[in-house]
Amino acid sequence: MTTRTVAASRKQSASLPFFGIPRIMPYARKYCRTLVAMVFCGLAGTAMDVALPLFQRYALNHFIAGGTLDTLPLFIVIYVLAIFAASGATFIACRGAMTVEVSMNRDLRNAAFSHLQTLSFSYFNQNSVGYIHSRVMSDTSRIGSLVSWTLMDCVWHMSYLIGAVAVMMIINLRLALMVTAILPLLVILFSLFEKKLIVANRNIRELNSRITGDFNEAITGARTIKTLTIEDRMAKDFVEDTREYRNTSVHAARLRGGFSVTMHLASSMALAIVLWQGGLIAAEEVGTFSMFMSYAQGMMEPVRWIVDAISDIITTQVNIERLTRLLATPSDVTDKPEVVEKYGDSFDPKRENWEPIRGDIAFEDVSFRYPDGDEYVLEHFNLEIPFGSNIAIVGETGAGKSTLVNLVCRFYEPTSGRVLIDGRDARERSQLWLHSAIGYVLQTPHLFSGTIRENLLYGNPDATEEEIDRALKLVSADEVVARMEKGIDTDVGEGGDLLSTGEKQLISFARAILADPRILVLDEATASVDTLTEQKIQSAIDTVISGRTSLVIAHRLSTVRNADLILVVNDGKIVEQGAHQELLAAKGPYYRLYTRQYEDEATKGILK
Fold first, then answer.
1. What secondary structure letter does DSSP report for 440?
2. Buried-most residue among 18, 117, 208, 337 (CB within 10 A)?
3. Measured distance CA(122)–CA(10) in Å, rounded
């Protein structure tokens, strides 16, 4: 294993009690009636299976050895009815198992997906898409199968084993005790292999997450991979991960194979005892011998299933462990119970209690460091942003310009101090209350699969055609729609990939404006677009910021000259603030940034 796999493995907790099954019982409880019906029908079907060798014993002793056929018609009727009853019970049990499996998968995936919506940005920054995807999809599938089919198989095989042993004890106690004496050996073998199998299967699941992540990066970053000509490197990384996955899987298979072989050896010893003693019985009663032979053969499958089921349950314990850890992960940003009671949450908002938002923002003695950081980004920071102000945040790439915006939007909480919205601590109201008043335009725009219209309505589901047209015209996105064959009902593709970056940016800008936000955040909205689109966006910005509080993160300083206040960020800290002319006169960091950009643009102009 590589270092990161070993590290991931060490982070895992010890074996969960009862294979972690108590952790998923709340999700299975709603299907108690179906599960009980499954178990009842499974027991009924198994009872018939246990009874069939008794029918066989009766037939041999009475019809063959006894030479009488008086009760044959009745025997045939009862035998056929038993077979039909067993088939009917099995059908009902299988149908119930399928229902529970798909329903559990749905419930667990819904729970995981909903919980992901409540987690803060830090969780997604620290965990890859492949890591999260495998928990929501693969782990839930294994758990659903455990609760349904593994339970059903357990009822079938265990009840058959118990029933067969019980019948044999009634008929020949000595032989039955000799068979069951092998059970302590099985327990010892299980304890020897359990921990090794858990660790091996846990490593396999982690490697599977990495491979899923490799797939995701290869697909979403296909264009970048080709432009950088790093196909060989990506393929090499993928081959390395799959090679490690193969080696780890082979190791786990060897453990499982060794476990199976030793368990089968023990079970075969028990069957050898049955056959040996059965030979002595045959001399006295052919029907009883035949019955013992049937039970001997029938007991092999349950014993084999127990071997495989134990391994599967051990494997699924890892899935339960990973999924329940995701569901138990707390968000770094949460609303207090009293806030939820009054304002609701993201899934059940109480909009009738929401106060109107004006848009005044204030930082009151705010200190902040990121959850995975050691240094403070802000220390005892104070700033008042009256409603209608245009605040620009500038600095070098990677300087930490988004920190203030993340705090205003409550994507992160202050380490100490308060962020006030309209004079009240933002934590005194719900996250959804605040987010509903914020329009956010990202540097890298994201559109959802669907049409342009559907994407716009994410900003305001109740928007009228007139409001949509007005928003499109306001940011010049109506020109984009006019070029489309189906107009506003044109499909944008996954992530909006059927549109250019500039077209996506204009549509996302129109979507933000359609919500009529009181606070508008523009995160380097013109950084990834062409000059013509930049001019359109800049013209729209000058129009739409009127009557709103706006926070503009900018790389090109020429776009922020008219800002009411410019904050200069370096190494994650605000090193300078003031108006454009004031900062130029100070000849500090802002002056150096502005002068360097001006010279670069002038040089490019000369070269052209």
1. E
2. 208
3. 22
Distance, CA of 479 to CA of 467 (rounded, Å): 16
For 562, the token pair is 């008219």
What does the alpha-carbon distance between residue 507 and residue 451 come to, in Å, rounded to a whole number?
A: 11
Whole-number pLDDT of residue 557 = 80
At which residue do the structure tokens 């391994």 appear? 311
Q: Which residue matches tokens 């396999």?
A: 204
What's the start-to-end Cα distance of the chain, in Å? 54
| pLDDT, average across residues 579-594 | 90
User: pLDDT tens, 256-267?
Assistant: 777 777 767 766
Q: CA-to-CA distance for 559 and 535, rounded, in angstroms?
A: 10
Mind listing the pLDDT tens digit for each residue in 288-322? 767 776 776 677 677 667 766 776 777 788 788 88
pTM of the model: 0.70
Question: Do residues 406 and 415 lie in contact, with contact meaning Cβ atoms separated by under 8 Å?
Answer: no
Axis-axis angle for helices 183-220, 3-11 (nearest 10): 120
Residue 510: helix, strand or coil by DSSP? Answer: helix
Q: Report pLDDT digits (tens) over 547-557.
A: 899 999 887 78
What's the pLDDT score for residue 108? 92
For the record, the structure tokens of 296 come out as 């001997």
3-state helix, strand, coil in the chain (%, to 5): 70, 10, 20
**Residue 560 — φ and ψ, nearest 5°?**
-120, 15
570 touches 401 (CB < 8 A): no
Q: Please give the full DSSP string across 547-574, using - where no structure is assigned.
A: TSEEEEEESSGGG-TT-SEEEEEETTEE
The residue whose two tokens read 């009411």 is 564
